[in-house]
Amino acid sequence: MYKCKVGMIGLGNWGRNIYRNLMSFNVLEKVYDKDLNSLSNFIDNKNKISGHVNDIISSKNIDCVVIASPAPTHKEYIIRSLLNKKNVFVEKPLCLSLNDALEIKKVSLDVNKLVFTGHLLNYHNGFSELKKNVEAGLIGKLKIIKANRMNFGAIRKKESVLYDLTSHDISMILSITKKIPNKIEVNAIFENSKKIADYINVILYFDKNIIAILSSDWISPYKEHRFSVYGSKGSLVFDDTRNWQNKLTFNPSYLSKNCIVNYNPIKNISIKEEEPLKKEIKTFLNCVENSKKPKTDIDEAVNVQIVLDMIEKELIRKYG
Question: How far is CA 107 from CA 61, 88, 152, 293, in A?
Fold first, then answer.
């Protein structure tokens, strides 16, 4: 189906899902991970194992590099891949600072190669349908966006919950508002480290009195992946923990101008069942082969990084 040849860097828990999808499209040439024993135990076809990252980055037979290694390595691997004339798919976060993001963007423009960021939920049919209905005016005037992303475990040592979880929701929020917030408020809990937040609550203030509230938490006793939009005519709720028939709901209840709640029955909105990661990787391959601009290109990634930088600076100001 596709002519491009892909090399992959990083085969952790999520990287294995990416590997499975790349194999299904028959585009994967080589895979590298610093844990060669784990790599060898996981991959049956030993010809696909690369002993060194340079073998992928500098290979003349590979035209795309998929990066699913730890976040602190992203900047180096992205820039080296770009300078070797490779298109790049990088798992979120793009990198860990705004300056690094701007440097990556400059290099990508200089070499005219694609940087596609793995803001996965932009390729989830539940979110796509929610966004389509917002733009069609189903909920009226948009007022409040809420994003809760909570679970227990997978605590990082070099990146906070801000980069690990919140980046997903910032990407989705900016996709709807199409604006950078003009003011933010931040609260955080540092349970396991003095510098790496384990829980974060963020309020983003946008033009036209739109507010977005984010809560991200990896020490939560329960799992919640819920994204909702509230407007003058009702609400849409995208709950990714529910089955496909119930992932997206429309609640036509609303608050009138005299603060009376007008109750109406909740309705499910039908969405096509489709693996978001497979759709995301398929989009990347299509963009490479047809020179198309994806939703999650380097410009989108830089905008997300701008908001992450705003939040990080406020965390430093408030908590030191």
Answer: 22, 12, 38, 17
